[in-house]
């Protein structure tokens, strides 16, 4: 009985310490030394202190978590303010080295998850850290009006307002194509719920395409798309059980070759992916279906993982991915289809060593794989409604039964934080409202802001799929008033030798492949010619075709090429 009472008094003193400071320790030690009469006197004193300083009797339902010291709470990246008994105490922030150990943010709809995501992006921008925000609800674009986000890039994935092209069949630079092929197929199977028989057929199809396009030999000038894979499957002579496998495989590839997803992944090149990782980027995903979103996100994260894997830098925070609705890719239910950990969960686990931070944003922690939960350093839980979600978050944050109840009673802007180091006990913070005017950015605003990016950084986009409609193509109808001598020479060579191959043309011009490709991209951006692939016995031959406008000017001997 005495031990239980002593523990109760100790807990009261701990709750009073953030307010009384060292006096609470003095009271506790005095209590231990007193006789029964003295102890009763101190108990009465503590009851008065509790009533006055903690806004009511201790029997009342209060949310009291002992805050850390001001020194321990300090960090370079501001997250919120530590609070105790409803009072703001001091700022809490994450340290540079903590980001690569990953962050989980949980809370029901309307609890403030997006608000915190905006605050995090502001802090990252302030520290000049690039990030990638996977936006499911078109919330992030309003940040474009803020001065600290004047260089923010917003891509409307699946919509032509600000298109994003990403062909997952193109392995990251220096990555092993065969290893990439197998990982990508697992992502496809995970996104579209495919079985082992389908995996076999997809492996055969993609392997054949890689051989055909010269991926294994490193001689590729263009890459296969899922249209090639779908065509291979259409022509595959399936027998017996393979017929059902083929039907499932074609269902998946048909989805990747139809509608908005077709314009995203079926591009002959990946444009500026390495540069994207150096920028502040938002990808709006609302135009994609659920399965297409999962495939796109997982293949993109996998590409980043394998790209980082081939670079020498390690454990130096350089980039952050913020993923909304993360349970769709980190669900234990989906990855158990194949047993063990899915390739995407393994990739996220390994991102820590690859300079990459990953922030999970979700309203259902119970749906997140235990492996993913275990591989996070910081957990921030806002108000949660479902009993399973409360239990899952409480378990991850080591909350006792009394503290567990707090998760269902948090106000908007309140959160409980648990770190796996530095501060060992959970504590509460207040997250300030991020000042932003919702709905201030529309598609016209995005198109205008992104026009400079497409014009200056991604001239190659005109090489994409035939059905692409890209903003930069508007420049094709404009005269290109400034052509270098090399560009003029290139156009004249195409005019005089229209069916020459790339190597032959570059040799005739006495330029390197790198110089020639750079000239070609610039002329493509100016809309002065197009590229076409002609089928041959050995594969495909890429030729250059002048536009009608360019040909007319070249045919007219009275006009100088400089008039182009």
Automatic annotation (TrEMBL):
Protein name according to UniProt: Helicase HerA central domain-containing protein
Entry-linked SUPFAM superfamilies: P-loop containing nucleoside triphosphate hydrolases
Ranges in coiled-coil conformation: none
Organism: Candidatus Desantisbacteria bacterium CG07_land_8_20_14_0_80_39_15
All copies of domain Helicase HerA central, residue ranges: 94-137
Domain of life from the UniProt record: Bacteria
InterPro entries attached to this UniProt entry: HerA-like, HerA_central, P-loop_NTPase
Gene3D superfamilies: P-loop containing nucleotide triphosphate hydrolases (3.40.50.300)
PANTHER family: HELICASE MJ1565-RELATED (PTHR42957:SF1)
UniProt-listed Pfam families: DUF87
